[in-house]
């Protein structure tokens, strides 16, 4: 389970998008997952596979805080326990449960832990900005036809901004003939913080890499808050969902969400046109591509991926 992406917390969406009566299906690292809310409104997650005949539980409905299988009506609580087997009052339901996965709501986001069980050995590392009151969050999800590592390293790549994003973000890193770009990396418990200087002049925007698959962009906005969190969610070996979450403390009405969503899609679309042409689709060992000094953040990501994630997996024995 979750091969190449096991035993980590990942953002999978906004908490408000998980409704009371509607299961929410996902696919993470080739594993089908379904989220739903129990009778007390708590977020729950199960492997999206009925233990009876293997069908998608997400095709069913939420009844009495349980997820009902669409095939034979078996019902499962948020902890995976079987609560009902129609036509079989003598069934040994304690042996007929679904597989639960840890899921939490933190900072207005849904966080999934990629291993079976009711609890994870750690808490998700939530950015400090999400602890503040009075924030508006908006989310856009875009598919990319490439391995998630290519999308992740692109989000950490400063030098591409004035080229790929000529129409949107070129002023974030203004390019002048003969200029020198320096990129600093500061280790943090959750990953690393990067900053830039052009010809020795520090630039105002900073960018965080939060292990395993999150980029956090800090944009100075005076007294206002405007930040971007980008979660790169692996679907399978050739498909990635990029979840772009904008965070602001102004224009908080949901009426403005459409404006921020359009801007996110435009920026993401510029990246997608280029990244989907990458070969090989998964980032290769460092020596197989030519790199330069300004590639330090992406090279650090590649090392962390190969040291801590590549080849990882979770199984039923982890429960």
From TrEMBL:
Among SUPFAM superfamilies, the record links this protein to:
Bet v1-like, ISP domain
Pfam families, A to Z: Rieske, VanA_C
Alphabetical keyword list: 2Fe-2S, Dioxygenase, Iron, Iron-sulfur, Metal-binding, Oxidoreductase
Q: Which InterPro entries match?
A: ARHD_Rieske_2Fe_2S, Cholesterol_7-desaturase, Rieske_2Fe-2S, Rieske_2Fe-2S_sf, VanA_C_cat
Rieske domain: which residues?
9-112
A GO MF label? dioxygenase activity
Protein name according to UniProt: Aromatic ring-hydroxylating dioxygenase subunit alpha
Q: Which organism is it from?
A: Nannocystis bainbridge
């Amino acid at each position: 389970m979750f091969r190449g992406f096991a035993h980590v917390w990942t953002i999978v969406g906004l908490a408000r998008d998980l409704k009371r009566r509607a299961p929410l299906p996902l696919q993470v690292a080739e594993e089908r997952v379904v989220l739903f809310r129990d009778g007390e409104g708590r977020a729950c997650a199960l492997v999206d596979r009925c233990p009876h005949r293997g069908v998608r539980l997400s095709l069913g409905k939420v009844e009495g805080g349980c997820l009902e299988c669409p095939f034979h009506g078996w019902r499962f609580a948020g902890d995976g326990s079987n609560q009902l087997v129609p036509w079989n009052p003598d069934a040994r339901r304690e042996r007929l449960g679904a597989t639960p996965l840890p899921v939490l709501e933190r900072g207005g986001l849904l966080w999934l832990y990629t291993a079976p069980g009711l609890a994870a050995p750690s808490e998700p590392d939530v950015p400090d900005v999400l602890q503040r009151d009075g924030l508006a969050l908006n989310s856009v999800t875009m598919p990319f036809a490439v391995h998630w590592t290519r999308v992740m390293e692109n989000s950490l790549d400063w030098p591409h901004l004035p080229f790929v994003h000529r129409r949107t973000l070129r002023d974030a890193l203004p390019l002048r003939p003969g200029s020198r770009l320096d990129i600093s990396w500061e280790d943090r418990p959750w990953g690393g913080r990067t900053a830039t200087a052009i010809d020795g002049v520090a630039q105002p925007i900073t960018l965080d890499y939060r292990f395993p698959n999150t980029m956090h962009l800090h944009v100075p906005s005076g007294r206002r808050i405007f930040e971007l969190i980008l979660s790169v969610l692996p679907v399978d070996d050739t498909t990635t969902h990029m979840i772009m979450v904008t965070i602001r403390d102004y224009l908080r009405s949901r009426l403005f969400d459409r404006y921020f969503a359009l801007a996110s899609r435009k920026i993401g679309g510029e990246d997608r046109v280029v990244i989907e042409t990458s070969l090989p689709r998964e980032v290769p060992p460092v020596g197989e591509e030519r790199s330069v000094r300004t590639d330090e953040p992406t090279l650090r990501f590649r090392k962390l991926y190969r040291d801590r994630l590549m080849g990882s997996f979770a199984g039923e024995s982890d429960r």
